[in-house]
Amino acid sequence: MTAAIVKEKVELDVADGTRMAAYVARPGEGGPHPGLLVFQEAFGVNHHIRSVAERFAAEGYVAIAPELFHRSAPPGFEGSYTDFPAVMPHLQAVTPETAEADIRSAYEWLRSNPQVKADEISCVGFCMGGRVSFIANGTVALRAAVSFYGGGIAPGLVGRASKLQAPSLFIWGGLDKHITPEHRRAVTDALSEQKKIFVNAEFSRADHGFFCDERAAYEPHSAKQAWALTLEFLRS
Question: For domain 5-235, which architecture applies?
Fold first, then answer.
């Protein structure tokens, strides 16, 4: 465990001419360190996502959480967990194409950072970010990709399974009504068909969003186990 961590905001240029803010948390000393892209839920780079980035920094990662809503929302946007309709327009504005551009921008920031091991960059994403994590794995050269309850991978993105380069870890809540068992199976079937390396973990007593301790769906036992599994997967 690294003692002190450094937290900062950075601004990135994106290939489409837009500017994207991002939250960075990194170990205060030593290095270079492995890099990690942290992809937000549908509620922005909020307190929860920033704290997740900080937890990874404490484990020795340079973590960057890009604001994927930068085209439709003001910098620093945070949606309310109890008002999903308010975040829908921003969620719908994130297309695979805009996500790819944002992924490349944040990835290049990590890769060009002397504090980061350029060949040890991975990603993790939650909810909407779980889908973006899947897209990232076919967009840039990653060491590993973790997707927490990534809605919309199936049916819309399973055709991208052939592009995946790094081993994938999929984490689902067994009680999740947003992502059906059929959708989860479609994801793993697509990866099996393409002979991709993956781990599939379903937490039977957990619902969508169970990892977030600021949501009503928080399930502490599953969250603790999913965190341990994620850390081990990224390390190995």
Answer: 3-Layer(aba) Sandwich (3.40)
